[in-house]
Amino acid sequence: MLYQFGFNRETSRYEYGYNSIPTLNVVKAPGDTDWHRWSMLFDGSAYRLYAFKVGSTDTFYQFAYNRQTNQYEYGFDSIPVLSLVDIPANSNLTSMAMLFGQGDYRLYFQTL
């Protein structure tokens, strides 16, 4: 389950449930989903959630928000399993960030 906070421009704070769905379920996740390494983005058509496979540095899972069920679902309207290649040796693989812009999806690692 995810807790959602919305930005309140009047207070300049992120507030739990403000202008948002307070709690969101994530369903059908593989048993080896690493919930310590995950990220989200919106690509103009779907809200997407990504999480690495436990113990993996190059395999991660994709979820999308299903408006009919009001939950994030593994493999819904998405490629369920994605791979990374050519990862620089000094990448900090403990966390990641995702971005969509100008028609392209991007994944980021910080350096060690």
Task: Please give a structural write-up.
- The chain is mainly β and 112 residues long.
- It has one domain (27-111).
- 0% of the residues lie in helices and 59% in strands.
- The chain has no helices and 11 strands.
- It has strands at residues 2-3, 5-8, 13-16, 23-27, 33-42, 47-53, 59-66, 71-74, 81-83, 91-101, 104-111.
- The strands form 3 sheets. Strands 1, 4, 5, 6, 7, 8 and 9 form a 7-stranded mixed sheet that branches. Strands 2-3 form a two-stranded antiparallel ribbon.
- A hairpin with a 4-residue loop joins strand 2 and strand 3 (13-16).
- The chain is globular.
- It starts with a strand and ends with a strand.
Largest sheet: 7 strands, mixed
| Domain unit count | 1
How many β-strand runs?
A: 11
Strand percent estimate: over 45%
Task: Please state the average pLDDT score.
Answer: 98
SSE order in H/E notation? EEEEEEEEEEE
General shape: globular
Instruction: Name the helicity range.
Output: under 10%
- Extract low-pLDDT stretches: none
Structural class: mainly beta
Radius of gyration: 15 Å
SS field, number of helical segments: 0
Distance between the termini: 30 Å
Q: How would you summarize what this structure contains?
A:
With 112 residues, the protein is an all-beta fold. The chain is built from no helices and 11 strands.
Question: What keywords describe this structure?
Answer:
112 residues, 7-stranded mixed β-sheet, 0% helix
